[in-house]
Amino acid sequence: MSKKTIIISIIIILVLTVFIFLISIRGEFTSYLEEKYPGQAFHVGFVKIDPIYGSYYAKATCLGDHTSFTISRGFTSKIIGESYLQNKNINQYNAKINDMFYGSDIESSIRSVTGSSKLPFDNNAAYNQIYIKLTENIAHAAVIKKMMNTFKENHIVAEKIIFTYEKDNHLYRIELSSSDYELKENEIAAKIERHK
User: Fold this and answer.
1) Would you tell me how many other CB atoms lie within 10 Å of the CB of residue 103?
2) For the purposes of burial, counting CB atoms within 10 Å of the CB of 73, is it exposed (0-12), middle (13-18) or buried (19 or more)?
3) H or E, element range at 151
């Protein structure tokens, strides 16, 4: 055998060994999810190596509710960490507030609406924060007032409701809460601050 053939053979063996090892880590992740969440089915993607944090990780998806999350374990540890319930919680809170504006007369004025809570999802749970990005060429105070009215009608309680938007190359921001639902449009306009 030539030297070149030996080197190629060694490289192929090393690649196959790493591939088989990563497949076994994927099997560990799949078994972990099946044990922790019986009755749920998951798809675990290809395992990758993160040399900076010294871990193996993969993207996974719950097939029942389509929640995507990361699952990982360290090089030297058998302890597996994942964010399934946390991501599912975020998705449920976000879906609840996004659905309120779907098909509404102000839907086109909204770039994004996201919300979070420290509590597991419950239709009556309070949000820690709701963050809204608005589009540029609209009557911002009027849209904010309509959104606040919608939150009030849907009994949304939030510690912070933050609106941001860009206009004329500047960033504008207003921070409100559910205690501000009664503010009038001109009072909202007076609270909007230019940030840059």
Assistant:
1) 7
2) buried
3) helix 140-153
Instruction: Name the DSSP class of 109.
Output: G
Place of tokens 């309680």: 157
The span from the first CA to the last CA of the chain, in angstroms, equals 68
Helix or strand run (H / E) with residue 62: strand 55-62
The pLDDT value recorded for residue 165 is 95
pLDDT digit string, tens, across residues 46-92: 999 999 989 999 999 999 999 999 999 999 888 999 999 999 998 99
CB–CB of 55/72 below 8 Å? yes
Distance CA 140, CA 33 (A): 45
Could you tell me if 116 and 147 are in contact, meaning their C-beta atoms sit under 8 angstroms apart? no
Alpha-carbon Rg for the chain, nearest whole angstrom, is 24
Structure tokens given for 141: 């105070």
Take residue 177 and report the two structure tokens written for it.
Answer: 């809460």
The two structure tokens encoding residue 120: 């597991």
Angle 58-56-10 (CA atoms, 0-180°, nearest 5)? 110
Beta strands in 75-109 (DSSP E): 80-82
Predicted pLDDT of residue 4: 79
pTM of the model: 0.73
Q: Is the dihedral of CA 110, 97, 81, 33 positive or negative?
A: negative
